[in-house]
Amino acid sequence: MIVGCTTSQPAPDAIRGPPARHRVPVLAALLLLLLAPVLAGCAGQPDGGPQDDKASAAPRWQPRPGTSWQWQLSGRLDTSVPAAVYDIDGFDHTKATVAALHRQGRKVICYVSTGAWEDFRPDAGKFPKSVLGRGNGWQGERWLDIRRTDVLKPLMAARLDMCRAKGFDAVEPDNMDGYRNRTGFPLTAADQLRYNRLVARLAHERGLAVGLKNDLDQIPQLVGDFDFAVNEQCAQYGECARLKPFTAAGKAVFHVEYELPTSRFCARSRELRLSSLQKKYELGAWRRTC
């Protein structure tokens, strides 16, 4: 900790120009040279403000293929599961919960929906009706018009700020393949690539790792933008080999099956180095591992 450092937070899209040049007396210049290491420690972004990749003091967490995990989005959180990674709801859990998992040596992923609106979230009223599309099959949820980044960027940035403020290591942005669904909007693959990269950049600016949720068709274009993948039911639909670009890049693939027993997918999962679980659709604490 450096005593006496002060920082100020720029506007989100502020551009800082080079500092003006001034003549400095010789003694003052010498003093500045002596203080340079201290001043360098004060020059970073303030705690709680956006950071780009170069400004981050520490490298992002990078989960490796085969990392064990637990995915729980409903029910009382069971922190006794022997897994290196917990993926939990970002809104439902507190900074204290994340800290407790960290004390147990776990990394923690913040689940948030970035491609669909949820009427039960505290920020639901901030989404204008113009960006709300068809239902996505889950009660209280509707697809978002991801073309409207003017509206969605600040809303998603605020959600990722919440993840960072609570101490999460990474984010799992859900509903990242709207262009393949009946959303009510004429979304294209290019729209989806643009939006998914925006979400990845927003996460990285906050020092968070970020996972690509499903969206198998765009893995070749997006594997470089994301730090891991989260997949549902690739074994059931014979698609797990399409996740190879992630494991080949040394990035984890966190995978679940709901309708297949472990005997039907674990051998192939081990071959592909996937981190595979059998779960129930409600994503409570119950799981079976490979």
UniProtKB/TrEMBL annotation:
Gene3D superfamilies the record matches: Aldolase class I
InterPro entries registered for this protein in UniProt: Aldolase_TIM (IPR013785), GH (IPR017853), GH114_TIM-barrel (IPR004352)
Ranges where the Glycoside-hydrolase family GH114 TIM-barrel domain occurs: 68-285
Pfam families with a match to the protein in the record: Glyco_hydro_114 (PF03537)
Top-level division of the source organism's lineage: Bacteria
Region: Disordered, residue numbers: 45-69
PANTHER family (UniProt xref): ALPHA-1,4 POLYGALACTOSAMINIDASE, PUTATIVE (AFU_ORTHOLOGUE AFUA_3G07890)-RELATED, ALPHA-GALACTOSIDASE
Protein name: Endo alpha-1,4 polygalactosaminidase
Species whose genome carries this gene: Streptomyces mexicanus
